[in-house]
Recover the amino acids of this structure.
């Protein structure tokens, strides 16, 4: 015969579940804010998501190391022109794995641009994304981001497959 859990045990279990839900929501909200902040031309909002020295491997041949590089990319004439012509950085809902004060989120991203001649939008790029996160006193911060184009090469599929591999502690990542 098993004993009923105590009120302290019940409250502790509920507090743990609420914290996990809050963590997932915070990370999802940050990812959801990336595209609108980039498209609004607000690089200071984008870089606040990242730890100061975090790498952002945006595409083969485009690797940024920390705030100065990310800021330079967002302020570059090419990026400003993309925004001026009409662009959208769109991210899917992330698949989030929590592991204490660390987390990984895997999602799709696509960049659309205005096709004025056809009065519509075209897809410029669709990619697999892996975001690595760390809880700080100021909330969750990106410690690294990898973006791989879905161009038929194995890199994007491998990035997605990593989301289902065991975590650093050897435990299977939860699929929930």
């Amino acid at each position: 015969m098993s004993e009923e859990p105590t009120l302290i045990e019940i409250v502790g279990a509920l507090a743990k579940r609420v914290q996990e839900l809050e963590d997932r929501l915070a990370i999802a909200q940050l990812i959801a804010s990336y595209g609108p902040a980039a498209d609004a031309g607000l690089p200071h909002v984008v870089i606040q998501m990242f730890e100061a020295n975090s790498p952002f491997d945006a595409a083969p041949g485009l690797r940024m190391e920390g705030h100065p590089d990310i800021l330079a990319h967002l302020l570059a004439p090419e990026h400003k022109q993309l925004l001026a012509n009409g662009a959208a950085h769109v991210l899917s809902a992330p698949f989030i794995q929590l592991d204490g004060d660390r987390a990984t989120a895997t999602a799709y991203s696509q960049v659309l641009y205005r096709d004025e001649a056809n009065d519509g939008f075209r897809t410029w790029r669709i990619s697999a994304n892996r975001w690595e996160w760390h809880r700080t006193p100021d909330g969750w911060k990106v410690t690294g981001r990898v973006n791989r184009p879905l161009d038929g090469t194995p890199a994007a599929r491998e990035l997605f497959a990593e989301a289902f591999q065991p975590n650093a502690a050897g435990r299977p990542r939860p699929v929930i």
Observations:
- The chain has one domain: 7-162.
- Strands lie at 55-59, 62-65, 87-91, 95-99, 102-115, 120-136, 139-149.
- DSSP finds five helices and seven strands in the chain.
- The mean pLDDT is 92.
